[in-house]
């Protein structure tokens, strides 16, 4: 024990299980890293706890964004197949174009637009 908190040994699997339960609980409502840290620190303690919680929550956010992207693409393909008939692979280039040219709130622009701006920032002028 560390005060009134349980000291968690340096066991990655055990810590991961604690984090998964804290983040996935129906009562947690997917808390951010700060809220999750304050909730967990009442009962647990381990070295670098705050950092590990932040990394875990960031990982969950990335996974969730990927899942939403996949679902969006599946919905777009399904709509094309219903509307135009045929095989999904016939419409894959169309979906890629539509998705890459659609506004993404996470980056504040379309993916193709971000490539354009990245390209400009990587160019230089020879005099």
UniProtKB/TrEMBL annotation:
Residue ranges of every copy of the Integrase zinc-binding domain listed in the record: 12-64
Superkingdom is Eukaryota
Query: Short name of one Pfam family for this protein?
Result: Integrase_H2C2
Q: Which GO terms describe its molecular function?
A: nucleic acid binding
Question: What protein name does the entry list?
Answer: Integrase zinc-binding domain-containing protein
UniProt source species = Punica granatum
């Amino acid at each position: 024990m560390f005060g009134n908190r349980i000291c968690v040994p340096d066991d990655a699997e055990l810590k991961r299980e604690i984090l998964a339960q804290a983040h996935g609980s129906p009562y947690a409502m997917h808390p951010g890293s700060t809220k999750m840290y304050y909730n967990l620190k009442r009962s647990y303690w381990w070295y670098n706890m705050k950092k590990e919680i932040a990394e875990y929550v960031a990982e969950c956010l990335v996974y969730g964004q990927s899942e939403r992207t996949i679902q969006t693409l599946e919905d777009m393909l399904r709509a094309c197949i219903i509307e135009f008939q045929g095989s999904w692979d016939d419409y894959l280039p169309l979906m890629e174009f539509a998705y890459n040219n659609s506004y993404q709130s996470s980056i504040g622009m379309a993916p193709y637009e971000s490539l354009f701006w990245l390209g400009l920032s990587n160019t230089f002028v020879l005099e």
